[in-house]
Amino acid sequence: MQKPSKTEKRVVRGLMHVALERECGAFLDRLVEYIEGRRGELSDRDVYNGVLKMNNLFQKHLLADYVNVPNVDKYPRIAYLYSLGLLTDKEISSVSDAGHARIKEYLDELKEEL
Question: What whole-number distance in Å separates Cα of residue 77 and Cα of residue 109?
């Protein structure tokens, strides 16, 4: 397996940034929805504790999916983010042909697991 070039690494980091932005936006939407839905039903302290719990879970998710991803091979993560709909065909079009082949390979593996 050949290591990705600096340009390819930059492209992959950019794709992960796009997916992270989308996930953060979706999390904030869920948070607002939670606060608006629970206020009045629960005490403000209980709502606050719920927000803290949601935030802690989201931080663990970010650490696992974005921060602690090895620098060696991020193609499986890109394939996973693509399968979740966080990345589009147009966005991954800037990945090299070899990168596309790796992403397709991992997508096929994901489909087999389901």
Answer: 13
Mean pLDDT for 34-48 is: 94
In angstroms, the CA 110 to CA 71 distance is 21
- Please tell me the distance from the alpha carbon of residue 86 to that of residue 80, in angstroms, as a whole number: 9
Q: Which amino acid belongs to residue 93?
A: S
- Rounded Cα–Cα distance for residues 5 and 97 (Å): 13
- pLDDT single digits (tens) 90-109: 998 888 888 888 889 989 98
Q: Which two tokens stand for residue 67?
A: 């921060």
> What are the start-end ranges of the H helices in 1-114?
6-38, 44-62, 75-83, 89-92, 97-113
Please report, for residues 20, 45, 53, 113, the alpha-carbon distance to residue 31 in angstroms, rounded to integers and kept in the order given.
Answer: 16, 15, 11, 31
What is the C-alpha separation between 37 and 47, in angstroms, rounded? 10
Task: Give this prediction's pTM.
Answer: 0.77
Q: Which structure tokens are listed for 86?
A: 């966080």
